[in-house]
Design goal:
- This protein is elongated.
- Helix content is 43%, strand content 15%.
- It contains 25 helices and 20 strands.
- Helix 9 runs antiparallel to helix 10 (394-415).
- With 756 residues, it is of the alpha/beta class.
- The strands form four sheets. It has a six-stranded antiparallel β-sheet with strand order 12-11-14-9-10-13. A six-stranded parallel β-sheet has the order 18-17-16-15-19-20, with helices on both faces. The protein has a five-stranded mixed β-sheet with strand order 3-2-8-4-6.
- The structure holds FE2/S2 (inorganic) cluster.
- Residues 62-65, 67-72, 102, 104 line the site of FE2/S2 (inorganic) cluster (FES).
- Residues 19-120 form the 2Fe-2S ferredoxin-type domain.
- Belongs to the fatty acid desaturase type 1 family. AlkB subfamily.
Length: 756
């Protein structure tokens, strides 16, 4: 049974493609070559294709980097790769049949050739630059050769004189002359948009790469509703131009939202289109902040509030603008009965690179000393000390419990930060030490359950008494009920610390069957084996977005979060797992279901607890296990509270609360370095960087857990941090999302901050 469980996570994929790859193997360094759309790169041993591509400056599409999002999918044309994860979670049957792989989860075993979505790079020159409003500018570029694209798509644009590249929609239809126009909104602190807006650009060289996206007009006869906000008019103008060229007769309504009269642009052009459009054309400009006493006679309000007035049953909608507008519009449409497949959207985002992933610490990394290995063994000492204090019972258990709190809370307060990242030449020692968590947790489980057993199971107490001369059976009999309560919490803390934290590290190693096996059993102690599914394929994909059950929105209290995250996390894991089974044509009610198998593992532990400690032992274990699970949810709460992110943007270090407190870092396998962990989930814990400039948690882990359990104190301390995050870290789009989150939080200070 276990073997199958192990096998599920390790598969080899060999290409069936016919193209011959003529590449040389670098035998000295034992590296493989990978040809990506014709460009050759070197991949180090055990390096995945995505990491190698990014390291060598290849612009490879990616997001989560842990096999959770499929952004890095590509087609294996030739060669063989070792796949680190179960790709059936993300790739469709068709994609699997056609040899698609995930670049971030594929380690070449031979020289390899892959194909990723083709990106054409074309150079050209700016020949026109027009300021349209205070915030909107238009530039026109003559390309050296014609660009192939669909009206409505976007490209990556860069202009001579500035080292920056951003995505912008093309505002005109494809043409033989190779002219592309862009409508660009000036974004506060936006490097390229400010450059385009403020510098004379005519005559400067430009580079476009693309085209991308699936925002283009679908062919059918249904009425069209277009909703544009700000510079979101650009791809819509392109689609309209193409529509005229194609002689489209479909009735069309264009809702164009702006704040004031002077923010409207391209009105004459739209009026011309209105006259020549073959079907009925309705143009409705809508102003949201136009003064009441102005001469404006048109519509007022938010553009999204007018959607319902212009719908028919079979409307096909095209939405383009800032993400909040697109999200609200989508909701309106769905509520009005428009099918999801009839809604097409282009969310305008700008990638913010504040605190980006750039790591340049090669020179400061030193060779790990004996102590650097030893420090990560501190958790074994903590686990074994707990066993002793539980077995000795009475005052010793109480002392053990309070000493643990003291060790973490005071230890973190006085020992400062650990920002070192030594270079470990023997990572296998650290892996072995992670694996040791299972025997230690099993020992804690047996001993703690034994302490409430009405009998001396297996003669364990007598054996210990003979060995050490301390009467363990008597100590057990004399332990008062209150101390058993401390014992439950202490055991729960150990299940969280020795079990969940270690399992977190291990279940990220989806390529290693032993780590997966141990990790899942460690999770079984907290009834949370679904973590091995949801965390990698859900949480890492959606972290800091509203889609993620583990990310707590602003204003939520921890007790509600524990419940909500547990229920939604289980539902999400079930969805992910059943989808995978369906894709593989496997029965949901079968051994193959890792969700069901995992819960059965926990149930078997409940049975074992009953055997060791009878009914008291069983209830003791259930309470301790649930407390362990609760701890995980509190930790989730602390790690991402109030953060916002656009799902389509890669996770950055700014999307997690980080801490470098020494005791927490040493005993929790650098889980504390959460900023780096989420930005690069494939990195082993010993190589995670401290990111001292990342958003910082209140303190070390146990201290922050205690604070989180007191909601007024939590919000008192966290609200200023969240507000600082908005100012210091949020991209312009995230700021918009933050405003919505503030409104929903119900917290007066956050709501007031929207007006600052
Ligand atoms: S699956 Fe590879 S980047 Fe997300």
């Amino acid at each position: 049974m276990e073997r199958k469980e192990l096998d599920m996570f390790l598969t080899d994929r060999t290409s069936t493609g016919k193209t011959k790859v003529s590449v040389k193997r670098d035998t000295e360094k034992m590296t493989n070559q990978v040809i990506i759309n014709g460009t050759s790169i070197q991949v180090r041993p055990e390096e995945n294709i995505l990491s190698a591509a990014l390291r060598q400056g290849i612009d490879f599409p990616h997001s989560c980097r842990v096999g959770g999002c499929a952004t890095c999918k590509c087609q294996l044309v030739e060669g063989k790769v070792k796949e680190l994860t179960e790709t059936g979670y993300l790739l469709s049957d068709e994609e699997l049949d056609n040899g698609f792989i995930l670049a971030c989860q594929s380690i070449p075993q031979t020289d390899v050739s892959i194909r990723v979505e083709n990106k054409e790079t074309i150079y050209g020159k700016v020949f026109q630059q027009k300021i349209l409003t205070d915030e909107i500018c238009e530039i026109s570029i003559q390309l050296d050769t014609k660009l192939n694209f669909n009206a409505g798509q976007y490209v990556s644009l860069s202009i001579e004189g500035l080292d920056a590249e951003r995505n912008y929609s093309i505002a005109n239809a494809p043409n033989e002359k190779g002219i592309v126009r862009f409508i660009i909104r000036k974004v506060p602190n936006g490097k390229l948009s400010n450059y385009i807006f403020n510098e004379p650009l005519v005559g400067k060289k430009a580079k476009v790469k693309g085209a991308f996206g699936n925002f283009y007009l679908r062919e059918n006869k249904n009425p069209i509703l277009m909703v544009a906000g700000g510079s979101g008019l650009a791809p819509i103008l392109a689609i309209l131009e193409q529509g005229i060229l194609n002689g489209i007769k479909r009735p069309l309504t264009l809702l164009f939202g702006a704040r004031k009269k002077e923010d409207l642009y391209k009105i004459n052009e739209i009026q011309k289109i209105e006259k020549i459009w073959k079907g009925k054309f309705t143009f409705v400009p809508i102003l949201s902040e136009e003064p009441k006493n102005s001469s404006w006679k048109g519509e007022r309000g938010l553009v999204t509030s007018k959607i319902k007035d212009h719908l028919t049953k079979d409307t096909e909608a095209y939405l383009c603008g800032p993400p909040p507008m697109v999200d609200i519009a989508t909701k309106e449409l769905l509520q009005s009965g428009i099918e999801k497949q009839s809604i097409f959207a282009d969310r305008f985002t700008t990638i913010d690179h504040s605190l980006s992933l750039q790591i340049d610490d090669k020179k400061t990394r030193y060779k790990a000393s004996f102590f650097d290995y030893l420090k990560f063994f501190l958790f074994h000492a903590v686990g074994l000390t707990s066993v002793v204090s539980l077995l000795m019972g009475g005052t010793y258990t109480t002392i053990g419990f309070f000493s643990l709190l003291f060790f973490y809370i005071v230890g973190d307060a006085i020992s400062g930060d650990d920002k070192s990242t030594p270079s470990y030449s023997k990572p296998e020692i650290l892996t072995l030490q992670l694996w040791m968590a299972l025997p230690i947790l099993s020992l804690i489980f047996f001993c703690s359950t034994w302490t409430v057993s009405p009998t001396d199971t297996l003669g364990f107490g007598s054996w210990l008494t003979d060995l050490f001369g301390y009467d363990f059976n008597l100590a057990k009999a004399n332990t008062p009920t209150l101390v058993h309560f401390y014992a439950v919490i202490l055991t729960g803390l150990m299940i969280g610390l020795v079990g969940t934290i270690t399992a977190h590290e291990l279940t990220h190693r989806t390529w290693d069957p032993i780590s997966m096996f141990i990790g899942r059993w460690l999770l079984a102690f907290s009834f949370d084996t679904i973590f091995s599914i949801e965390h990698v394929y859900g949480h890492h994909r959606y972290v800091s977005t509203t889609e993620d059950p583990a990310t707590a929105p602003r204003g939520r209290n921890v007790y509600y979060h524990i419940l909500a995250s547990t229920i939604k996390g289980n539902l999400s894991a079930w969805k992910i797992e059943t989808k995978r089974l369906k894709r593989k044509n496997l029965s949901i009610l079968s051994y193959h279901n890792a969700f069901l198998r995992g819960h059965l593992m926990s149930l078997s532990l409940v049975g074992l607890a009953y055997w060791i400690g009878g009914m008291p032992g069983m209830f003791f274990f259930i309470a301790a296990g649930l407390f362990g699970k609760t701890l995980l949810e509190i930790v989730n709460y602390m790690e991402h509270y109030g953060m916002v992110r656009l799902p389509e943007e890669p996770v950055q270090p700014r999307h997690s609360w980080n801490t470098n407190k020494r005791i927490s870092s040493w005993t929790m396998f650098n889980l504390t370095r959460h900023s780096h962990h989420h930005a690069q989930g494939e990195v082993a814990y010993q190589d995670l960087r401290p990111y001292p400039n990342a958003p910082m948690m209140i303190s070390g882990y146990l201290t922050t857990i205690v604070v989180a359990l007191i909601p007024p104190l939590w919000h008192y301390l966290m609200i200023p941090k969240v507000m600082e995050w908005d100012k210091k870290f949020a991209s312009p789009e995230e700021l918009e999302l933050a405003k919505i989150a503030n409104e929903k939080s119900g917290i007066a200070r956050l709501i007031a901050s929207n007006k600052e």
